[in-house]
From TrEMBL:
It comes from the Eukaryota. Gene3D superfamilies: Potassium Channel Kv1.1, Chain A, Ribonuclease Inhibitor. It comes from Chironomus riparius. Residues 301-365 form the BTB domain. This is BTB domain-containing protein. The lineage of its organism: Eukaryota, Metazoa, Ecdysozoa, Arthropoda, Hexapoda.
Length: 472
């Protein structure tokens, strides 16, 4: 099977640069011989490839035969590719590798013999999987291990690194000890084969019995401990799968009912809106027209808003009706004749004032809607704030995502934060962003700057390689 790939240098560490084969968003069948169709760079060949990186592919089994194509491989990464299962035989070909990465897949169980004989292995990553159980002795015998990452998993989340630049949370020995403590009982036997999941299995059994209600398909689960770890774990998985299937069916039913109910509410709301429009179109239009006129008329204006020495004559009654913030200020200072606002520009306030009088949404340059959002948030004008968020998201892209993330965190706005963080991950696909970084704008900026510096260093190295090739 032909696989399209791209070749480039990847700065794995500050002191190491790998010539890497990248495969993105492709379907990789099991037990299929792969032929890589990418074009090499800088005069390199298959013999120069040190790393193969699968990203966002569809992979059910670890691809085999890679070392036949690239004889000097020392690193394999399968990231975000739906990989669900790993066994010792899957990695037999890669015993001499130094780096193995399986980030952001769907792996639930790691057997104890997975890395048996991997004497050169110094870096492992299982970040962002669905790990439910890990055989405690999985790291035994890995004497050259310098980094292991189990972050962002349901049952166990730890990160160890010898590199002082990385923020690990323990020594290698402490990670091994925690694995034994969490996944072993007092006798030292893996608890995932007996006591640890026994309660969960029994609970699932009762749940499945209740769901099936005696229809002949009740799942039979043995209460006694099985003979080995894998059988018990698989038993729990089967029970859990049946339970999840029943729950999904119930959720679909609830969702369908919810959608139908929502559609009915929308129809009722539309009908009510049409009735209101038929009953009072002239009144509504007349009110809007009259209020719009008084915006331009200085008569009866009884208050001033001052911004950067520019004065805006306004009506107190309208400000108190439209802005809870201004209403609070005026109620607490009933005799005040003016108010100075800071951190809001003249241009933005002009747009806000027009909206308060006319309900007309302002049209701004894309970069200005964040400032409109900030001002609307301060004045508690929710309708205008929602409009600003909508316009910000319409113009969201990789170039402004970091700025939007900063605003999302500053104002604790979940939608801005999440959408901006997703855009950042798309913009920088080779950076591994952890989910909790969405709340840490400064860290995201630092990581991106560090990556840019490495990319710049890489470009200089590539140029140097070109010069060396040209001079030889």
């Amino acid at each position: 099977m032909e696989v399209f790939c791209e070749y480039s240098y990847d700065p794995c560490e500050a002191s190491r640069v790998f010539y890497t084969c990248y495969i993105n968003e492709q379907n990789i069948p099991e037990n299929t011989e792969l032929k890589f169709t990418g074009e090499h760079k800088y005069g390199n060949t298959n013999n120069d490839v040190a790393e193969v990186n699968f990203s966002s592919c569809n992979i059910t089994k670890v691809p085999q035969g890679l070392t036949k194509v690239f004889p000097n491989l020392i690193s394999l990464s399968i990231c975000g590719s739906n990989l669900k299962d790993l066994k010792k035989n899957d990695l037999a070909e890669y015993k001499n590798f130094e780096i193995l990465g399986f980030a952001n897949n769907c792996i639930e169980f790691l057997p104890g013999d997975l890395f048996e004989g991997f004497e050169l292995l110094n870096e492992i990553s299982f970040v962002g999987n669905k790990l439910q159980a890990i055989t405690p002795n999985i790291l035994d015998g890995l004497n050259n291990l310098k980094q292991v990452d189990f972050s962002n998993n349901p049952k166990y989340t730890k990160f160890y690194s010898e590199d002082p630049k990385n923020l690990g949370n323990g020594t290698l020995q402490s990670v091994k000890a925690e694995l034994r403590e969490q996944f072993c009982n007092n006798s030292g036997k893996p608890v995932n084969v007996g006591q640890r999941f026994e309660d969960e299995v029994q609970a699932l059994k009762i749940t499945v019995q209740n769901l099936t209600q005696g229809n002949g398909t009740i799942l039979k689960v043995k209460a006694e401990p099985p003979e080995n770890a894998c059988s018990k774990f698989k038993l729990m998985q089967n029970a859990n799968q049946k339970y999840e299937d029943e729950i999904r069916a119930l959720k679909r039913t609830v969702l369908n009912l919810t959608v139908e109910n929502q559609a009915l509410k929308i129809s009722q709301a539309e009908l009510q809106h049409e009735i209101q429009a038929l009953n009072a179109p002239v009144i509504q239009k007349g009110v809007h027209s009259d209020i719009k006129k008084i915006l331009q008329d200085d008569n009866f204006k009884d208050f001033q808003i001052v911004i950067d020495d520019q004065k805006f004559n306004v009506h107190k009654f309208l400000l108190t009706a439209r802005s809870p913030t201004l209403a609070d200020i005026l109620l607490n200072n009933p005799h005040a004749e003016s108010l100075s606002l800071v951190e809001i520009s003249v241009n933005i306030f002009e747009k806000i004032l027009k909206f308060l009088y006319t309900d007309e949404y302002p049209q701004l340059e894309d970069g200005k809607y964040l400032h409109l959002f900030s001002a609307a948030d301060r004045l508690k004008i929710e309708e205008l704030k929602d409009f600003a968020v909508e316009k910000v998201l319409e113009g969201l892209n990789g170039d402004n995502a970091v700025e939007v993330l900063g605003f999302g965190n500053k104002y604790a706005h979940r939608q801005l934060r999440l959408k901006a963080f997703e855009e950042i991950k798309k913009k920088w696909p080779r950076i591994e962003f952890f989910d909790d970084w969405a709340f840490e704008t400064e860290r995201v900026v630092q990581v991106i700057e560090l990556y840019k510096q490495k990319e710049e260093a890489l470009k200089k190295m590539e140029e140097k390689f070109k010069d060396m090739k040209a001079n030889t």
